[in-house]
């Protein structure tokens, strides 16, 4: 039967349509598969892009760091060249070696390549997000695969560059170079990224969520749980803790910022993954068995991703090998007893379970012995590593990390103990077949592997998550007091507008000081608006130019405006009119410049201030005659060394190197700019004897700042100051001269004009102060209350003073040197080889200063021969000044009595044992200095020296003056008894001393230091004599026995000595009322020191009523009570307070408004003293020194100062660890 045509056609029709449908379905399926495959390809590209982007970000950040430190080094080199130091520099501050340069060039190429394909990737990403995603599937396929190939290539190139970073230690080079540059940069450093790191709000639940996710993951065997916990939970905990420890740290480099940013991204991604996985069960309604089979692989895959991200983060930290740095000032970093106890407790927490683990090993089957011993060894190794880490200096900065270390170590040991216990228990259980007996070991062996891997990673991560402590190498040295004084001036409550000035030579630190003042918290609180306008050395006084510079700093510009524009006086004035501001005008060189600028400043009455810096004091006085200019001094010897030490490539120097380096620093004259220029010369080099000698030899004494200052301040000095300054040139270069010696010499030389109302010594000290303020003399050493101890002439000025066109010493003055030191002027040097020639050339000498530091008797003999020859020939008979200080036992000729014009005889530090009796013939002698000699008894002829004003004796050697005649001593000398003596220092008095009778007749005494060993009856006589010394200003009394130990001291009230300002008492006070009674001492007292006084009642309630008291010191045994109270309103003028060796003192209370002006506080060896109550009330303290005190006390003090923000951040805390 045939098929009808209709049916056939219908069949063919359906077949055709079915074929078409199949083709369409096939094409649709193919297209969907193609799109899905393409989408997966893009997802792989996106994942690769993220990874490469992060690595690119790290690489780019490090490249920025290299270029930044290189640029900073280049600026240092330019400054060194400007200072004239370039001729000594063989290397640049920052040197890129060949390998580093190659890395930089290759990295730039890689970065350009990455930036090239990044644009294409971003276009692909945007197209994919748009509605064109279907068309993107066809057109973007080749691009995706092309970009994937490019990306793989870039990733390989980046990995090569990262490997080079580790091999060439690029980060270490950057960190080392940054420290070098930092030490040479201007102070204070103006950091672009000065804000401390602030961690984002942490998700407190991330660790709990991870723990919950692990516990809910189905069918996880113990090994898998360990792997998840040790590879995800452990590093995550440590990372979060480390970021918490970083809080407040200033991130100095771009690589640090980039890594921290990635750390936050990693934590966020893990948080997101955990949240997403926790939502899976709510989306699934399948049977549990089926659900678990699907869910576990997904979770394990997610865990693997988390592990990879964390591993990659720590791996990159290891490969880049950079360091987080916390910089600290030169203060001790020590651990408190609590911290030490806590560390010991942590060690016990770990040691105990570790011992349990070791004990269990004894019961383990033999098959596991080797692996267990290896694991035990690794546990002890990591434990030892942890103990060493806890001992690292500054580990307290890792408080959160330390807690995590301890907890994780305890967890590892606990898990190992549990695992070992289970294995031992299962191994001892009887089983029916061999296979079951091997199962416990297979499982345990896998767990042992996880423990070992976890311990190795644990140790590695601790090494990576560290903050290294480095001493700050860019500190402002010696400006604390200056900052305080200027801030006080500027914030004094008065509404009148005023202009204040900082005056000093170029390079002395005026700009640094002004910036520090601007950054001071008191200033920031007092002035809402603060500005700094700096002018170059050569500035045009054209009004428009100055206004443009001023306006562009002050006036706020709107967005879109150009960088600079012209301003009118009215615009600037209107801008400032309603503001309470502090404006620093830096480097005002001329009066005309100030006259031009001042029109822009409104005379408002809201307390606004201008602070200008200038090198010329006349400019400062011209700007505002009502405000005294603040004169910035040269740095002291100690301050100069501390500044120089910051610039050293190596922190520690040998004794020989240090001695030579100190000589180099001394040659800088205390000028910070000169000191830093030495740092420029030494940067990038190892400090060696040869290098320092080369620097010392080539230091240019005619540096521009010194010449400019000489032109400004040196040439126009008054005649008396010119003579004083020229006298410094008599001393060897870089000499350190005692202030007392210098003052006495100036008076004897006649450099000080007579004044009817002031002692000549006071005028001489004022002259010295004036020269110091003019930056012509360097104050080398000062005591705690700011008094000058030693000073010297900067070597550059020594050369200038010795030039023919400058003031030079007259021919009558001879500096006599054994060897020619640094050349000053060869004609003015004597030597033992030409003494006769010198005496013939220099007739009628008026002054001789001897300098000979040789040991042995030869110097003394040669000088004795010279003096004998000169006196015998008559060439020295006009001598008025003879200074033999530091000459070892000079032979004084008996004929020295012929030097009747002699006014000054200096024998300090000569160790002489006797002095000729003919000294009594020196009728014009005004000063005799015998301190640090071995002269026990001075000849009785001394009593004849009617013009003697200053007598310094050796108190330690019990020096005294013999009576001139036997019998009634006073009858022979009455009316003829040292009547002009003003200073008697270092004298000794016993029962037989004639001084006990003569003392009351020395009516003109102003300063008296007297040690005595007297019966109480004779002490009564001494007390009566003392109250008759109406002119006495300084009184130092020591009651001692044969061994110099303190004895009873019996004194009457001294309130009648109305000129007494400085009192020192050594010995047990038989009448404590002299101290604890307001009428016992005069109100004129400014300085009081007590030692061995044995006061039992708190002296503070009475002493605080002495309203002029500025310095108060309690030495050993002065107070034996337990409590002290400084009450409200007491000690209004007190500046310095010391507590030394007060063994019984336990409590010290400081009430509000007590000691409102206190600057310096010292506490030493008061072992029972607790942290003073009310310490925060001492708001003006600038320096707090702590020595030989319990660690707990020191730590509590440092903590207290931080809590109270004591001194607004300007206080310096010193402990005996570094002082």
From TrEMBL:
It holds the Pfam family LRR_14. Residues 731-800 form the Disease resistance protein winged helix domain. This is NB-ARC domain-containing protein. Residues 480-647 form the NB-ARC domain. One of its GO terms (biological process) is defense response to other organism. The chain crosses the membrane at residues 12-36. Signal peptide: none annotated. Gene3D superfamilies: Helical domain of apoptotic protease-activating factors, P-loop containing nucleotide triphosphate hydrolases, Ribonuclease Inhibitor, Winged helix-like DNA-binding domain superfamily/Winged helix DNA-binding domain. GO terms for molecular function: ADP binding. Residues 878-1187 form the Disease resistance R13L4/SHOC-2-like LRR domain. Keywords: Membrane, Plant defense, Repeat, Transmembrane, Transmembrane helix.
